[in-house]
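Notes on consecutive records. When two proteins share a document, each keeps its own sequence and its own token line. Never mix them. Below: protein one.
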Amino acid sequence: MEKEPSRNLRQMAVDTLRQAITTGEFPPGSHLGEVQVAERLGISRGTLREAFRQLQQEGLVTYGERGRVTVRSISEKDIINTFTVRAALEALAGETLAASYYREEHCRQLRGAVEKMARAAKVSLEAQIEADLAFHELLCELSDNDALVRSWKLLEGPIRMCIMYRGLERALSNMNPGRHLEIVTAIESGDPVKTQSVISEHMVATAQALLFGTVRTRPRIDLTGD
């Protein structure tokens, strides 16, 4: 059985490195030297290797020759793949909420999250991103589907990297409260099909902004996987 202190140190390392990667302290392509990182975090190299393996599973780092660990670079294909899966998960969550007996309470909580987004817009770009992700995480959590929530959380790191390394300003075009109220309104309607459509369109627009910016002539992308 794994000892609790070792597990805590590993999780601390994972959390610290994840934040450093998704905030740009360790940009894509950065080599994470085992000796240097272990010394910086004050942990053993064995514990660090366990943390690296978890970050690899989350899609944040890659292993190269001789076990060299590097922060993963984000390609256009990565963005499309990430948002294709994200769209499917959040559309399922939205459908579930639209059909739920507790729909009214769920929408009350989601409206509260939208209000936080409006306040965050007056603070900073980073605050807006956090409020936006909090809304979408809440959407998934309210579905009461543990497998869905776990899957979404595994995507959170790559989602943050897509936003960070494709430009914060690009992402903001779909982070305004009004677009998220459209999702809440769709759920309130009690129409699962409509809700699925609204969420899917939101994900397409977000991915398009990250890929092509906010120009009106940007091409439309397909996140259905068909």
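Protein two starts on the next line and is unrelated to protein one.
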Amino acid sequence: MLPKEVAALTAFVQVAELHSFRAAAARLGVTPSALSQTMRQLEERLGVRLLNRTTRSVSLTDAGIRLFGQLQSAFDQIGGALEDLNRQRERPVGTLRIHATQAAAALVVAPVWERFLSTYPDVHLELRVDQAPADIVAMGFDAMIGCKEHLATDMVAVRATGPMKIAVVAAPAYLADHGHPRTPADLANHRCIRYRLAPDQPLYEWSFIRDGQLQRVPVGSHVILNGSELAVRAAIDGLGITYTVEAKVQAFLRSRQLVRVLEEFSPSSEGFLIGYPSRRQMSAALRKFIDMVLDTHRSPGTAVTNPLQEASGR
């Protein structure tokens, strides 16, 4: 294929994506009239009309739609190949913007941030901690870290951690007053501290291993909070029993501020995922950050194209 055809097809893809000669011309650095002429010449060489033009808009003909779909795939492959070639020369620089839940920030980001920023001094880290799912592309973030409920279905995702053991905990004073639950069913008679993973989501379910299977157990809601960190604090203060990942409460278990119950029934959660929009557009800083997280947690880093359709876990 001649360079002239490559340039014309590249211009066609821009027009097809933006549905505007003016916007496409601005992106390509040419005038709208020059771009329009390029499109007419391409159509003449191909012998088929690709675009429907009006004074206000541009749309694709059936032939244009077919060509656009084929070119998108081809250009993505070309871009990926060029990125792979250049990857070894990339140096992580700029600002890495991460959106994370409270738990993910504490258990995934905090353990690596000092080493990461020391290793890559030209990278600046912006971390936003928020329980609510977010449109990270619209908000300008590079990645989202959380459980699968927080990631959009069209994200590429990598497992940041392996499975994480669940701990059901309460303060010694609470258990002295109310007794220890012996089975998950006993929780119906206890004060349970529950939380939502995000404001628009239902209360986080409590599941236990019973008869060799993971089963959801209905429990009351003596206290409802908007995050597991507050739930742990409430448990320490003696408000009741809460259900969280073991890693969050290990220090409180060692200090005896909290006591574990129902350990033989406690399952493991799925762990945390790092989600990002596209492998091809991943920055060097994000790639190095993910590598360091996986190294720290010794995770296999299995890629998941649609984490929300995985088997349910955390």
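For the record: Confidence is low (pLDDT under 50) at residues 299-314.
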